[in-house]
Structures are given as structure tokens and as C-alpha cells.
Specification:
The protein is built from eleven helices and two strands, in the order ββααααααααααα. By secondary structure, it is mostly helical.
């Protein structure tokens, strides 16, 4: 971050020299598609359903932690699990607190990292992203097997089966340790982030995001890199407050999913 400014880009101007270890364009596109789908799933706007989703998320995180230590291929989270994971992981301090705690996902006091590209399934368990159907199905079957062996029940990715219309789920499913770092109400409230993003980008920007228009995403990455550059240049937050632009916040949300 402290290297000189790079040569000017004809399209976006001078750039700070910043090396990011993940593909933020691809990740931001997947995060956006995930957010669009979550926004249409009314079941995930109900706090009692989110409590069940948090319980499923906690089980998944423990399973993936064990699987990663054994060197297995990444497991595939259903959309409700992914929604909770996303809300948790962008609260970086709280996510770390949970992962390294004694009652956390048995991660040997380390963060549970995401591995590989973000696989996004819709509410019915169908792929939203351009990944290999065969590879994802193999990974899903591995996830089903691991879930069945660990918890004695089937692993369901079709949310219509997990949250049937009118069904009321009993409260108290979520562990106190997880609730200490994030509440169901916060997960529900995070849905409003997408509407705020669309206000800032406008209709044209929303269309570009929905179409996965790469140059538009690259422009947002440039804005995010400038934010990182300024944050490193002015580390004393008491005298200088550096804020990221709301549209580039999409890239910020994409970055910490690989902690």
C-alpha cells in the first residue's frame, strides 16, 4: 500500500499499487447475485426463520472447519446458511471472536476461512453462478453425506422444504455463543443494504450490476483500492476519518468473505 502511485489508467486515472489475493470482480458479482436472491426470499425476512438459519449456519461452520482440517474439498452452503455467513463475516471483529472462542466451530482458535470461489445456489438449490454443475453436485453430495453422518438428518438446500409456508419454528435454537456476536434482527436488517446500493448506483448502475458488466465492477474495485490506499496513508482515525463510497462498499463486502 505504500508503493508509489502507478501510471494513470486512461479510463479511471491514477491508481495506487495494491495487490489483492482474490478476484474481487468475480467475488463481487457473486455477492451481488446472492444479495438479489436473498432479497426475493420472504422466508428470510422473518426473525424466527433466521433463528433456524443461524442454527443451520453454526452446524455448517463446524462441519466445514472439520472438513478443511482433513483436507477435504469445500462444502456447499445453502442460501439461508450463506446469508447468515455473509452477515457474520462482514462483522469482522465479531466473526473472529466467535471462531476463536472455546465454544466456536472447533477451529483450533483460528478463523474459519472460505476456500475456493463463492458458490451461490438459489432458494431451490439451483446454481446461480457459472460453475461446473458436475463439480458442484459432487461437492453437494459430499456435504449431504458429512451432514448426515454428523447430525443424523438430511441436508436440505431447497428452502421451500426448510421453511414451509406458515410453519413456526421454536425459538432458542441458536447457541448463546453465536448470539453474542450477531442477532437474528441484524441478519434481517442486512437485507436493506441492497436497496441502499441501488439508490446510489441508480437504474443504469443496477442494470450493469445485474448484467455482470465487468468494466462497471472494475471501476468499483478501483474506488475500493483508493479507499484502502487512503486508509493506509492516514492510519490515525482520531484525526482523519476515511469512508468508502457506498457503491464501492459492494467490493468491500466481497473482500472479507475470504478472511
Amino acid at each position: 500500500l505504500h508503493e508509489p502511485i502507478a501510471a494513470a489508467d486512461p479510463a479511471t486515472g491514477p491508481q495506487p499499487v495494491i495487490n489483492v489475493s482474490v478476484d474481487l470482480v468475480d467475488s463481487a458479482n457473486r455477492i451481488y447475485q446472492m444479495a438479489l436472491m436473498i432479497d426475493t426470499v420472504d422466508e428470510l425476512a422473518r426473525q424466527d426463520n433466521v433463528e433456524l438459519a443461524m442454527d443451520r449456519y453454526e452446524k455448517f461452520l463446524k462441519l466445514e472447519s472439520t472438513n478443511a482440517r482433513a483436507g477435504g474439498t469445500p462444502l456447499i452452503p445453502a442460501l439461508d446458511i450463506l446469508a447468515v455467513w455473509f452477515s457474520h463475516i462482514i462483522r469482522t471483529r465479531e466473526y473472529k471472536t466467535y471462531c476463536v472462542s472455546e465454544a466456536g466451530p472447533r477451529a483450533r482458535h483460528k478463523l474459519v476461512d472460505r476456500r475456493g470461489p463463492l458458490i451461490v445456489l438459489d432458494k431451490f438449490g439451483k446454481l446461480l453462478t457459472d460453475d461446473s454443475d458436475y463439480d458442484v453436485e459432487v461437492a453437494l453430495e459430499r456435504t449431504r453425506t458429512a451432514w448426515r453422518e454428523a447430525y443424523g438428518v438430511e441436508y436440505i438446500v431447497n428452502l421451500a422444504e426448510v421453511y414451509p409456508d406458515g410453519a413456526a419454528h421454536r425459538p432458542g435454537l441458536v447457541s448463546a455463543n453465536l448470539l453474542a456476536t450477531m442477532t437474528p434482527a441484524e441478519v434481517v436488517r442486512d437485507r436493506k443494504w441492497l436497496a441502499g446500493l441501488h439508490v446510489v448506483t441508480g437504474a443504469d448502475g443496477a442494470d450493469a450490476l445485474a448484467a455482470g458488466y465487468t468494466p462497471f465492477f472494475r471501476g468499483l474495485v478501483r474506488s475500493y483500492e483508493r479507499f484502502l490506499f487512503l486508509a493506509a496513508k492516514y492510519p490515525d482515525r482520531r484525526s482523519t476519518f476515511i469512508s468508502v463510497a457506498y457503491d464501492a462498499d459492494l467490493i468491500w463486502h466481497a473482500h472479507p468473505i475470504f478472511p
